[in-house]
Structures are given as C-alpha cells and as structure tokens.
C-alpha cells in the first residue's frame, strides 16, 4: 500500500554506495571520441572517452558523488571514472526513485570546509524528508521533462555556436572571402593604422559610485564608476592577470582601466574587428608574457595579422555575425530562464508545498 505521508530518513538510509576502484581509467590521456565516457562528478563532468572495455560501470542509473566536493551527477549511461574520490550511489529500496533522490541531494545545503571524504563521515547522515514512491516518481518525471527541454535548448545553442565559430574561422583564414570572390589582404593591426589604446588605471577606492562599468583585467566589470572614459562601441582586451588577453565588446559607456581598447572609427567597422579578434582569442592568450602575473599589452595586439576588406564588406560580415550572436544570446537567456523555472519548481516540490498525487 502506498505510503503518502512524508517521512524522515538520513541519506545513508536511502542510498548505498560503491567505491570506484574497479572502474578507474588507467591513463590521464582521454580520447575526444571512444566507446565509453570518462566522467567526474565536478563541473566538467565529461572528461573524454576511452576504448577500454574492462571495468565499465553498468549498474545504471546511478548518482556519481564526489567525496571531496560533495558534487553530484545523475548518470543513466555506462561510464568509467578518473578519480578514486567518488562513489556510485544507488537506492537501498528499489521503490524509491533515484532521479528524485538525485534532485533532493542537489538541493542539500552543504559547504565542504576541509579536504576530506564526506559521504561516510557527514553527508550520509544528513536528514531529509521524502514522500512515498508514487509522489517521488511524479516529481522526478516533472523535473525530468524540464531537464529534457533544457537539454534540447543546449543542443540548439551548441549548433548555433558552432555555426558562429565556423563563420569566424573562415573569415580569419580568408576562405570566406575567396568563396565569395571578395578581394582581401592580410595585414597587421599596426600597419592598418588601427589605434590600440591603454586604459586609465583606477582603483575601487578612487572610483566614485555610479553605473559605469570599470573594465579591468577580469572577464566581468571590476566595479562601477560615475563617469566613462570610453563611449559608443568599444573592444577591450584584458591587460593583466589570469584572464590577460580576454577579448570583449561593450556597447555604451565604460571606464577602461587595466585593458587595451579599440574604439569606433569611420575607417572600419569596429564590430568586424571584434569578431576577428574573438576568432584569434587563443592566439592572443598565447601572447601573454610574465610569470606569476601574465600581461597582454597593446604591442601584442598591434602584431596580430587579420584579413582586411573594404568597409562595406566588413559591415556585411559584422551584421551577419551580429544576427547569429543575437540568436545565441536569446538561447542563453532561454536556458537560464528554464533553469530558473526548474529551481523554483524543485524547491516547491521537494518541500511538499506542491503535491502532484
């Protein structure tokens, strides 16, 4: 008889674990494609593939649990693992939904505070309240439906991103212009007379509170200031730190600080320059110099070789890529929206505030 009342258990009363020893890969060099995925419970998840047919974990589905970080992943396909610091979790009672328990575990508020294994010592002792199997299954199905929608959107995003990368690659190597019979030449940014300017250093202490983003060495604004030193469309290239060389574009007022910039000009479409630099991102990263504090200064930007066409052709390419990246941004926003919807639904369902059966 179905028990509908919610009951309290420890996670260790609900889930049994298996050590990963039998399923470890023997090499750290993973293939880009192969018979079996190599997984981690961390953010990367898929590390690569192996063609090794021995020691493949097949007792699926399972929850892959990182014993050091307490990260979890629901896995429903055969795999091998890289790290011994993980456990495979399955239900003790087969009536319990593993998908439901996976969602429940992902909602547990726990912050690792030391480099140690947590499942046996602490995590398995965490108390949770769960409904009966029928409600568990209903909740799991609803959340799985949202996961499927998010997965579809992510696959669409990946395809669109690959299209953008393919166009940029063909622009950079000139094959796009050759195919369209468009005259072009390869020249350095310095020879083209494009001005690359250094930002004006400012600190959080000297900045005056405002809404203008301060662009420094990171990927996101460092803080905000009351006035800009760049307006319009501006390309920034981070000048120092771990992200030295990171290329970004800003449409509006910014304060350029620890970065190099390229501003709008009637001589070129700055958006075209941005997409070319975006395609050369890995090359720019390779131009970093310095030890503990890497740098990328204007000279490294000036020496870049780019394909050059007349303004109208630059504008056409820029407009085409703007459309593609607009779609990419729209898809990213959609995914974020659906992920937010799922988190809100999950909180309500797992707390029993919404009943499905």
How would you portray this structure in words?
The protein is an alpha+beta fold and 357 residues long. It folds into three domains: 7-129, DNA methylase specificity domains (Adenine-n6-DNA-methyltransferase TaqI, Chain A, domain 2), CATH 3.90.220; 131-178 and 309-357, Bipartite methylase S protein (Helix Hairpins), CATH 1.10.287; 185-308, Adenine-n6-DNA-methyltransferase TaqI, Chain A, domain 2 (Alpha-Beta Complex), CATH 3.90.220.20. The protein contains eight helices and 18 strands. The protein has helices at 11-14, 98-106, 133-172, 175-179, 270-279, 281-286, 298-302, 311-350; strands spanning 7-10, 15-18, 36-39, 46-50, 62-66, 72-75, 80-81, 86-91, 127-130, 185-188, 197-198, 212-215, 223-225, 233-238, 247-251, 255-256, 259-263, 305-308. The chain has a four-stranded antiparallel β-sheet. It has a four-stranded antiparallel β-sheet with strand order 11-17-14-15, covered by helices on one side. The protein has a three-stranded mixed β-sheet with strand order 4-3-7, with no helix packed on it. Helix 2 crosses helix 3 (133-172) and helix 5 (270-279) packs across helix 8. The chain is elongated and about 70 Å long.
Percent helix, as a range, is 25-40%
- Tell me the domain tally: 3
Helix/strand order, N-terminal first? EHEEEEEEEHEHHEEEEEEEEHHHEH
The end-to-end span amounts to 15 Å
Number-wise, the strands total 18
Strand order of the largest sheet: 2-8-5-6
Count of DSSP helices?
A: 8
Helix/strand/pairing category: alpha+beta
**Major beta sheet summary:** 4 strands, antiparallel
């Amino acid at each position: 008889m179905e028990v509908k009342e919610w009951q309290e258990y420890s996670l260790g009363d609900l889930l049994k674990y298996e050590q990963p020893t039998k399923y470890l890969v023997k090499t750290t060099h993973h293939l880009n494609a192969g018979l079996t995925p190599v997984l981690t419970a961390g953010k990367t998840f898929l590390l690569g593939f192996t063609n090794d047919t021995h020691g493949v974990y097949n007792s699926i589905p399972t929850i892959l649990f990182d014993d050091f970080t307490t990260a979890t992943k629901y896995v429903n396909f055969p795999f091998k693992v890289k790290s011994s610091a993980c456990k495979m979790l399955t239900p003790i009672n087969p009536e319990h939904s593993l998908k439901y328990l996976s969602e429940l575990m992902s909602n547990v508020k726990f912050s690792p505070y030391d480099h140690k294994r947590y499942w046996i010592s602490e995590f398995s002792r965490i108390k949770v309240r769960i409904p009966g199997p029928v409600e568990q299954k209903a909740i799991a199905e609803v959340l799985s439906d949202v996961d499927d929608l998010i997965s579809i959107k992510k696959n669409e995003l990946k395809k669109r991103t690959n299209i953008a990368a393919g166009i940029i690659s063909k622009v950079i190597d000139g094959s796009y212009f050759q195919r369209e019979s468009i005259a072009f030449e390869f020249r350095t940014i310095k020879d083209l007379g494009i001005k690359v300017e250094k930002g004006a250093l400012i600190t959080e202490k000297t900045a005056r509170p405002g809404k203008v983003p301060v662009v420094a060495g990171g990927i996101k604004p460092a803080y905000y200031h009351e006035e800009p030193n760049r307006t319009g469309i501006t390309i920034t290239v981070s000048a120092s730190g771990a992200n030295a060389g990171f290329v970004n574009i800003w449409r509006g007022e910014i304060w350029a600080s620890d970065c190099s910039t390229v501003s709008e000009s009637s001589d070129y479409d700055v958006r075209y320059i941005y997409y070319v630099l975006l395609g050369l991102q890995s090359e720019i990263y390779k131009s970093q110099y310095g030890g503990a504090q890497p740098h990328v200064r204007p000279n490294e930007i000036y020496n870049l070789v780019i394909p050059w066409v007349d303004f109208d052709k630059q504008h056409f390419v820029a407009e085409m890529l703007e459309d593609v990246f607009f779609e990419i941004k729209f898809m990213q926003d959609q995914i974020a929206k659906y992920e937010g919807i799922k988190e809100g639904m999950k909180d309500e369902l797992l707390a029993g505030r919404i009943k499905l059966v």
